[in-house]
Write a structure and sequence with these properties.
The protein is an alpha+beta fold. It contains twelve helices and 17 strands. The strands form three sheets. Strands 8-9-10-11-12-5-13-14 form an eight-stranded mixed β-sheet, sandwiched between helices. A seven-stranded mixed β-sheet has the order 3-4-2-1-17-15-16. Strands 6-7 form a two-stranded antiparallel sheet. The protein is globular, with a radius of gyration of 26 Å.
Length: 484
């Protein structure tokens, strides 16, 4: 979890009644979404927002109106720790290895390898810059904490403090559940039965007194790994491999008999000394509404927004923008040099980001998912994200994750679907107390119950109610809703 004590998120809610041009079906006014401007945002708040169907484009954060928009956009995440490369993914990885090591150029792109990147999510959001905030920086700077506490005391709700503590306990409990979600419990060995190995008969079965036979390719792979670990001048992510990286490489590159190759088998493979090209990676913090944070149990690079640069022989050929959040790596978009489109850089970058997620998990156990933005079943060219398995789609009504295999038959019948089949299930994070929504008004932080009494002019309760229902109770009590 991100470090506590960071500054609060400040957002300005715009609503979402107007339709915009859809970048998928080209409908001139069919793209409907709610939006807000994030003047600043903590990584924990953004994590909770994307788990309720929100997504950012720059500082604009938007949530499609799923049951009304022309092309419903479902949040999709890949279970990075259990990811298995498909045949088409292996083709892309092998193509990159051949190009780097031998200079082989394969111009033909298989139909199984969707070309591109995550940039289409940004292209569809031309509305993002029509609602830019005009609030001054001074208006967005809250006064001292003491002043805020005095204002909050105006609200005579005696149970408020107690409920806030309970909410925090529930939140921390959910983090623990996430952290242990992928751990398996090994049962005690049974002593009720003994396994007796009979001596092999001549010409039948394996001789159990001798080590099992190993495949030649497994032996070659192990030798390559040993050579890589001995040669400590190898660079990864722009810096020399540290001892921890070597252990990670060793653990993830050891071949297991009859096991399919992992991403690490391709990404971290040692290249020949006479390789034709050199591919390097660097990572930098970049400007975004997300506040950079560091935590003792977090990744060494910290949380926040980063540019991942792909350098080929000293020339930059692609840049991926990612958000590193408490539970996931979220892919924002990728842009690249079209001269290198034959390398399927959109697919390759996604696979590298999945491998990077698995690497971060070694240091930050809660971080175990790779978010790919939106899955749009009604747009055939956008279905490729469903090929990264295992993956889940977010139910647009109850905000629970559902395996994509269960969602696809429903989406074949209707472009808008509730994935949670429990008809009694509701949004557990829904707004329950509107008065507890935090508001920033005239540089003063206060609950909405106090702001409502001070406000002059027509009521804005409907607008605040809509905002709170979309961001949920937890975020509405943590983030500051700016009111002029």
């Amino acid at each position: 979890m991100a470090a506590a004590g960071s500054s609060a998120s400040i957002v300005e809610y715009f609503g979402g009644e107007d339709g915009y041009r859809c970048g998928y079906c080209k409908n001139e006014a069919g793209n409907l979404s709610h939006g807000m401007w994030a003047h600043s945002m903590t990584v924990q708040d953004y994590q909770d927002l994307i788990d309720r169907g929100w997504r950012r484009s720059g500082k604009y954060v938007y949530k499609p109106i799923m049951n009304q928009t022309c092309c419903p956009q479902y949040t999709i995440r890949c279970q990075a720790l259990h990811f298995q490369t498909s045949k088409s993914h292996k083709k892309v990885l092998k193509k990159m290895l051949k190009f780097i090591s031998k200079g082989d150029v394969s111009k033909g792109v298989s139909e199984e390898e969707p070309m591109d990147s995550h940039i289409e999510d940004v292209v569809t959001c031309d509305f993002a810059y029509k609602s830019e905030s005009h609030a001054s920086q001074s208006e967005l700077t809250p006064l001292s904490v003491d002043h805020t506490e005095r204002v909050e005391d105006e609200d005579k709700d005696a149970g408020e403090t107690k409920e806030e503590v309970n909410a925090q306990q529930v939140e921390s409990g959910s983090l623990q559940i996430c952290a242990h979600k992928d751990t398996t419990v090994t049962g005690e060995p049974s002593h009720s039965a003994k396994i007796v190995h009979a001596p092999p008969k001549p010409g039948k079965g394996a001789d159990l007194s001798k080590p099992p036979c190993r495949k030649a390719k497994d032996i070659r792979k192990e030798r390559k790994l040993q050579k890589l670990l001995q040669n400590q001048t190898c660079t990864f992510e722009g810096s020399e491999l540290q001892a921890g990286d070597q252990v990670f490489l060793l653990q993830n590159s050891k071949s297991k008999t009859n096991q399919p190759k992992t991403i690490e088998d391709f990404v971290f493979v040692s290249l020949p000394d006479d390789a034709q090209h050199k591919l390097e990676f660097t990572r930098f913090l970049c400007n975004s509404p997300l506040e950079a944070e560091n935590a003792p149990n977090g990744p060494e690079c910290g949380y926040g927004s980063f540019h991942q640069q792909y350098w080929l022989d000293g020339k930059i050929i692609a840049v991926g923008v990612i958000d590193i959040l408490p539970y996931c790596v979220s892919s924002v978009y990728l842009y690249y040099d079209p001269d290198y489109s034959f390398l399927s850089l959109g697919v390759y970058s996604a696979l590298r980001e999945i491998a990077f997620t698995r690497q971060l998990h070694e240091k930050a156990p809660d971080l175990c998912f790779y978010y790919m933005g939106f899955y749009i079943h009604s747009c055939p060219k956008m279905r490729y994200k469903g090929q990264y398995r295992p993956s889940d789609l977010l139910c647009p009504e109850t905000y629970v994750w559902t395996p994509i295999e269960q969602c696809l038959p429903l989406l074949e019948h209707s472009k808008y679907c509730r994935f949670n089949q429990d008809v009694k299930a509701v949004d557990e994070g829904r707004i329950k107390e509107l008065g507890r929504v935090r508001v920033l008004h005239k540089r003063t932080v206060m609950p909405y119950s106090v702001y409502k009494k001070r406000r002059k002019g027509p009521s804005d309760e409907a607008n605040v109610q809509q905002y709170a229902s979309l961001v949920g109770q937890t975020c509405s009590e943590r983030m500051l809703l700016f009111r002029s």
